[in-house]
Amino acid sequence: MVYLQYNPGKTGKNKVEEIKMNTVEQIKLFMEPRSVALVGVSSRTGMHSFNILENILDLGYRGNVYPINPNTSTILGRKTYSSIKKIDADVDLAVVSTPRSQSPGIIEECIKKGIKAIIIVGQGFADASDEEGKQLQENIIRMIRNTETRIIGPNTIGVSNPFVDFSTSFAKQSEIKRLPIGVISQTGMFSGSFPDLNLLGKGIDLGNACDLDFADCLEYFEYDQDTKIIFLHIEGIKNGRRFIEVARRVAKKKPILALKTGVSPRSAKVAQSHTGSMIGKNEIWEGVLKQCGIIRIGDFDEIGDLIKAFSHLPLMKGRSIAIISLSGGIGLMAMDACEEYQLNIPELSPETREKIISISPEWHTINNPVDIWPAMGISRRPFGEVLRTTIEAVLTDKRIDAVLLIVGAWFESISPPFSEIVLEVANKFKDKPIAWAPYEGWLYKITAREIEDKIKKHGKVAVFSSPKRALRALSKLADYSAFQRGE
Amino acid sequence: MVYLQYNPGKTGKNKVEEIKMNTVEQIKLFMEPRSVALVGVSSRTGMHSFNILENILDLGYRGNVYPINPNTSTILGRKTYSSIKKIDADVDLAVVSTPRSQSPGIIEECIKKGIKAIIIVGQGFADASDEEGKQLQENIIRMIRNTETRIIGPNTIGVSNPFVDFSTSFAKQSEIKRLPIGVISQTGMFSGSFPDLNLLGKGIDLGNACDLDFADCLEYFEYDQDTKIIFLHIEGIKNGRRFIEVARRVAKKKPILALKTGVSPRSAKVAQSHTGSMIGKNEIWEGVLKQCGIIRIGDFDEIGDLIKAFSHLPLMKGRSIAIISLSGGIGLMAMDACEEYQLNIPELSPETREKIISISPEWHTINNPVDIWPAMGISRRPFGEVLRTTIEAVLTDKRIDAVLLIVGAWFESISPPFSEIVLEVANKFKDKPIAWAPYEGWLYKITAREIEDKIKKHGKVAVFSSPKRALRALSKLADYSAFQRGE
């Protein structure tokens, strides 16, 4: 680490690249500190005590930990210190969990001690209703001006880095996995896990974002080898111009997914009170995110879907899809969703149709969507043969960029099971995404989750809970592919 | 049953009420037949054989079953008949699963035998690409004209009635439950179970709907004591005027939920080929369904959510909601969704605010959404007390019609667990819906599904997988309440 050469770049003398590296090194102090002071750690331990020290020890963090509590001499067998200045060693990071009124004094101590990274966990700053809270936050910002110290927070659970078994969360995390998904959020709710996925890579909760902001953290993830996908939860951003410049550059290298909240007039007003100036209307954000090449997440449910798609599937090179279903009716629903997400359902090529017609009853229309039920239910072809023939046919077709499978999960009991056939085909056609929305309603008792678990281990297929959600995710793979091509 | 007095009402001499009862009695022949002839039943049995006889026997149907197969004398120990006319007893219902070309001959035999209910399972009629299929379907319609025989299908899995342990589905149903949800669909995919719910009440798959249609089946469910909620999956409807008249009447008595597919220009063209004339544009359907008081389901995922809401929650009398969350950031997201679903987030009354302020830190803003984290994390109030005080306060508030809880599931390990407190409060406030979207990401390992299972047994709370989905469901409870009040 070269953070001793740190220069906040406020003089404007450094070249851009140098400043960037400095920010990155600075954030490394938060993400992989060699030593941490925990200010205001409670002597209460055990379930529901929200004791940061206990959580850090449980995770197995290997750096030095200095708990600060003037009212006791040990907590969990660890020696405590009465104040920061009593620590007779260098400290990379201070995590401050005191009542808000004590914060200025503690920050002053941290600066004197030479601590360059401070996380302010406490609430009641810009997020409070009273003038005092806002004043306190402004004081803090003034205190670090012209120092080498940077702050994450206040009103945050801080950072989480499973790659070094470290987290500053006061909430006990049931599982932190070394996954290549970097999170930058403004609520601690995302630094636990994603719905339906239970995953988390490195995480930064900016809270009120009084100092370090999205652009800074994006630069950290830009250079971070452990992170392949970046997820943002944005309430508001202070320096819009810098965000756009940085995000657009980073998005060319790694997909950035963003959930922007506070977009209705009332919620924007609330978000405004937490953060800075660039709250803006929904339409403005739509444009900004698009310009940056950021994939916008419309809904809580979509987070897990997109993480899954971007983690497991190749990009969709065009917008043309083939839909394979076991019911004409379900195929219709998927067509409606394609319209919504601007995906095309082209006619299949004559060669492709010929391959599928050869296994179907003569009266059956072979169109896109392809209904494969008649080939099985009426022509009595083996299920595996029908599935394999159809998927291979459409994936070979040059008109097709991706396939959506809406086939039930019940043939898992047959040998070879559906999922093995799908995986086999996926390995043959590695450059076209296969999205599977197994309809759970029918028949034998295997769940979509079991199929998903099986498939996740093996490769380039992703399972979604409905055809519409699968198509929504595919459309974002197509959006990002277009951005990368400069379209 | 009085079906011997059946009169299809085509002479126009009967009074409306009589015709209605006749339709209902007619459909009863399909739904609760005393005897069934299975035409074209295969001698192949066992897994994946799609043998209707086997499925019927497995379900424990108590009527008489007559398998028809000219090539064998017994199937599964049951005597088979070489043709319909060889059955020397009355037959209420014939289920015809032969290749399409044999259908006209078999229908003629059924009519001669006096069978008044026929399900045509086979495909290749109006759903086929060739002229022959369309011609066959027209022939069939002509054959039953001026007879007492009615048809469901073709291209259908028929009917399902768990209340008499009966189903004509060739697909083995893993579980058929006696639930008060009546299904009328145009694909067999819905006659299995609903995603996430695994439930099915009585079900009718209309398939190509060459004869019996939505209006007929709606009248059946109108009078059916076992059915409290009606779910429709509509591709197209032939007689729009009659549908509107019947649906509007039935919707006043029982909530009707409808998923309309085939709404994009291309999918509408495909739907057209299956069914009749009233395909129409999405905007037209939007108006028609609204006029009928039918709750429109926008998405596959929404089916389960709305069934859950209408099964477990009281209606929402107005459109004003209180949101209780453990994170300001998540509260913001919910505000955005409220705007989308036209729900208001009113200021709480001074009395309500006072109750919540009394347990919160002094600097904390008590607004709607209510962030209860500071009361627990900072004022160190017991979690249960905070939750109970807050929910009771907002539900007592006259400005509030429903509450959305966005609180984690991790306090289930505390005594009393969150879910018990929520249930207790729900029992006190029976006329206001409580929707719970537990955030799964945080902490101890209880899942939303476990909470849901616990709560479902007890009462008036429903659990949803995201705040947005909860709000979408609540907004539909408000829509239906407004329709019932004539607004």
Account of the protein in words:
The structure is a homodimer of 487-residue chains. In chain A, helix 5 (214-223) runs parallel beside helix 6 and helix 6 (240-253) crosses helix 8 (282-292). Chain A has three domains: 1-151, NAD(P)-binding Rossmann-like Domain (Rossmann fold); 174-312, Rossmann fold (3-Layer(aba) Sandwich), CATH 3.40.50.261; 315-484, Succinyl-CoA synthetase domains (Rossmann fold). A seven-stranded mixed sheet of chain A has the order 9-8-11-10-12-13-14, sandwiched between helices. Chain A has a five-stranded parallel sheet with strand order 2-1-5-6-7, sandwiched between helices. In chain A, helix 6 links the parallel strand 12 and strand 13. The radius of gyration of chain A is 26 Å and the shape is elongated. Chain A has helices at residues 16-31, 52-59, 103-113, 131-144, 214-223, 240-253, 265-274, 282-292, 300-312, 328-340, 350-357, 373-378, 383-396, 418-428, 448-456, 467-484, and strands at 35-39, 64-68, 74-75, 78-79, 93-96, 117-120, 150-152, 159-161, 166-167, 181-185, 203-205, 229-234, 256-260, 295-297, 321-325, 370-371, 402-406, 434-436, 461-463. Chain A has 487 residues and is α/β, with parallel strands linked by helices. The interface between A and B is large, with 86 and 86 residues.
Q: What average pLDDT do the residues of chain A reach? A: 86
SS elements, strand count of chain A: 19
End-to-end Cα distance of chain A: 38 Å
The oligomerization state is homodimer
Portion in helices of chain A = 25-40%
